[in-house]
Design brief:
heterodimer; A: 436 residues; 4-stranded parallel β-sheet; 8 strands; 55% helix; B: 253 residues; alpha/beta; Nucleotidyltransferase, domain 5; 2 domains; 5-stranded mixed β-sheet; 4-stranded mixed β-sheet; 9 helices; iron (chain B); CoA_E_activase_dom (chain B)
């Protein structure tokens, strides 16, 4: 890390020594996992660069926002109406929460048996090793699970935390509550900038984030559209999606479109990152915050290819846009925003059957060969919901494997055995089908 | 000769088939430092045609011998099918993991379950308790069969089970009864895993755990099906790998 970043870290009251320990581990892991892949698209370099500057250049940029008194909001959830933050000229981003590194420090305050994402995130605040957390005006929390809900109370003692009440059903009563919560969030942002957001500003904010989602939708389409040509690895696509939570949204969209142009060319030329008979795997379930690359790495070094993530860092995040057609007032925009956010099929909802229908439809459209249901340990919503999802998948004769894991590396061997066996059975079924 | 090598966490097993598809070579040694060197020594003067490796150390063998690997799941399915072509369910109790595998009519697996990262219900669990009681694994089954009381070991974590055993000893509980309780708890653990996969006849039990006759008996009682143990159950993974080696060549014959 160069000296100028150290100055920023000092300003942000970070533990510089511990942070550099974290970064050297992260860069080593990144290079082992990503740079060893063969035949990567040229335009992935931008995302490699951004990853290498994730706590450098990008933080420097955010410092400029801070100096101009623009709001900086960090979160762990896709229910945040980020359009409002962007409309105010501020930035909204994902906070550090995907590493084992900070968990021991979190476990001094939090129970051991809650999900690793919450523990990791809380640990980063305790350690003062995440510049995104340190720089933020407030952390956005929500009520999507019990462990999060209660952790926000404890976290709020260390850093301002704004909790938005996300209901667990999707009826009219809940819709009214949710609408109020969006207005309250908007008020909070307006307090920081010291003025009311105009219709034009809000509309612009929505357009910027809509474009980001379009870019991600296009990438999602290109990586899985051809049954025999996969122009980009699942790991690289995951990386791009993860970076969508950190980068400047406008620059990010442009870079993803450039990457997509290259992927289109690759498809035309028949350039694939894997053999044509490679088992195509959909990963569904809980999000994979960086540097949680474990499952993708196992699948792709064991002879499979990941073609899609049905997760919050994945399809759930970018599947729906906000419809701006015919909007005339701030209220119209908020109403459309509400409609969009209510389509998120998070496992915090009951019932949540639309998620299952979506998964099956996606499986067929993407010509996948199998599904891995990934869930973080102690993520009760996704973990319990797996029963309903897997039962339906089995009814539809879709091969499925469930894997529950945390951020530690100790179960990599076992996961490898399971994934390998799963791929073997898929390959067998494929060859059987081919012979017939 | 066709060789299957199963590098397990506790033992490395080697199985060799001749051209007539008969098992003519079985060898086992404890997995210690560099098991691939031990394998090399063993195979030095043998006529080796194809090797396939499996087990947790399969990639080490792959690197040393440049041979294909298969997962333990596939290896056990193939091994069980070799002895019992009508097998539907395989239970494998190895050193550090346990698995249940559903096998189809062609000897390929259709579904499986594997324990999580924990020694509960694995061979290691038996080993820890045996060493605490000062008895050998070979004595384990016969001791348990002489129990006069059915006690329950409630802790499923190996470390806590060990302390539970110690407190039972302090209460002057007989070794026979404790052994029974331990085997019974492992059987319960396996049965819940088997039931989640809807077991069907014929059920084959493999791995070192299948050498324990009390465990075999209790599994059968709890499942309501007879549990079959192949010859050399601890070699079933290696045998399955060797069968795969034959199949690899079979395509060219």
């Amino acid at each position: 890390m160069s000296e100028k970043y150290v100055d920023i870290y000092k300003k942000l009251d970070m533990d510089i020594e511990k942070h550099s320990e974290l970064m050297s581990a992260l860069f080593q892991l990144f290079s082992d996992v990503f740079l060893t892949q063969k035949n990567r698209p040229e335009n992935i370099k931008y995302f490699d660069w951004l990853m290498s500057e994730i706590h450098g250049k990008r933080i420097e940029e955010l410092m400029e926002f801070k100096d101009k008194n623009k709001p900086l909001v960090g979160t762990f959830c896709i229910f945040i109406p980020e359009e409002i933050v962007v409309a105010s000229g501020g930035a909204c981003y994902g906070l550090c929460g995907g590493a084992q590194f900070s968990i021991p420090d979190a476990e001094r305050d939090l129970p051991r048996n809650i999900c690793p994402l919450i523990k990791s995130a809380y640990g980063f605040k305790v350690q003062r090793t995440c510049p995104y957390t340190q720089i933020s005006n407030f952390i956005y929390g929500e009520t999507t699970c019990e462990a999060k809900k209660k952790t926000w109370e404890i976290l709020n003692d260390l850093h301002p935390t704004h909790v938005m009440h996300i209901p667990h059903m999707k009826g009219k009563r809940e819709k009214d509550l949710w609408r109020e919560e969006i207005y309250e969030f908007k008020n909070h942002i307006e307090e920081i900038v010291g003025k009311e957001l105009t219709f034009e500003e809000l509309k612009k904010g929505v357009e910027i984030i809509n474009k980001k989602r379009e870019a991600l939708q296009r990438l999602d389409y290109l990586r899985s559209t051809k049954p025999d040509i996969v122009p980009i690895s699942g790991l690289d696509s995951l990386l791009v999606t993860q970076i969508s939570f950190y980068d400047d949204p406008e620059r990010f969209s442009d870079k993803v479109f450039e990457l997509c142009d290259e992927l289109e060319e690759r498809i035309d030329k028949g350039i694939s990152v894997c053999e044509s008979d490679t088992p195509r795997i959909m990963v569904i379930g809980t999000p994979m915050a960086p540097p949680n690359w474990k499952l993708h790495q196992v699948v792709e070094t064991t002879g499979g290819i990941v073609i899609n993530e049905e997760a919050c860092i994945g399809h759930r995040y970018f599947k729906d846009n906000i419809d701006l057609d015919g909007v005339e007032s701030v209220e119209d925009i908020i109403e459309r925003m509400l409609e969009r956010y209510m389509k998120i099929d998070c496992a915090c909802f009951t019932p949540n059957d639309e998620r299952i229908d979506k998964i099956i439809k996606m499986y067929r459209e993407k010509k996948a060969d199998g599904i891995i249901y990934y869930t973080l340990s102690f993520c009760h919503t996704y973990n319990v919901e797996s029963k309903k999802v897997i039962d339906r998948l089995k009814e539809e004769k879709i091969p499925v494997l469930k894997i529950e894991s945390d951020y530690s590396a100790e179960d990599v061997g076992q996961i490898k055995t399971r994934v390998e066996a799963f791929l073997e059975s898929i390959r067998f079924k494929k060859s059987f089908k081919a012979k017939r | 000769m066709f060789y299957g090598i199963d590098v397990g966490s506790t033992y490395t097993k080697i199985a060799g088939f001749n051209e007539e598809r008969e098992i003519i070579d079985l060898h086992v040694f404890p997995t210690q430092v560099n098991p691939d060197e031990d394998v090399k020594k063993f195979l030095k003067d043998k006529n080796v045609e194809v090797i396939v490796s499996t087990g947790y150390g399969r990639y080490m063998i792959k690197d040393s011998f440049n041979c294909p690997v298969i997962s333990e799941i596939k290896a056990h399915a193939k091994g069980a099918y070799h002895f019992f072509p009508d097998v539907k369910t395989v239970i494998d109790l190895g050193g550090q993991d346990s698995k249940v595998i559903k096998v189809d009519e062609d000897g390929n697996f259709s579904d499986f379950k594997m324990n999580d990262k924990c020694a509960a219900g694995t061979g290691k669990f038996l080993e820890i308790v045996a060493s605490r009681l000062g008895v050998s694994l070979n004595e384990f089954a016969s001791l348990g069969e002489n129990a006069d009381k059915k006690i329950k070991i409630t802790s499923m974590c190996a470390v806590f089970a060990e302390s539970e055993v110690i407190s039972l000893l302090a209460k002057k509980e007989s070794v026979e009864n404790i052994v029974y309780g331990v085997v019974d708890s492992i059987a319960d653990r396996l049965v819940s895993m088997v039931k989640s996969l809807r077991p069907e006849e014929r059920i084959v039990f493999s791995g070192g755990g299948a050498l324990n006759s009390l465990l075999v008996k209790l599994l059968g009682e709890k499942l309501g099906y007879k549990v079959y143990v192949p010859q050399y159950p601890q070699f079933l993974g290696a045998i399955g790998a060797a069968v795969s080696a034959i199949e690899l060549v079979g395509d060219f014959v």
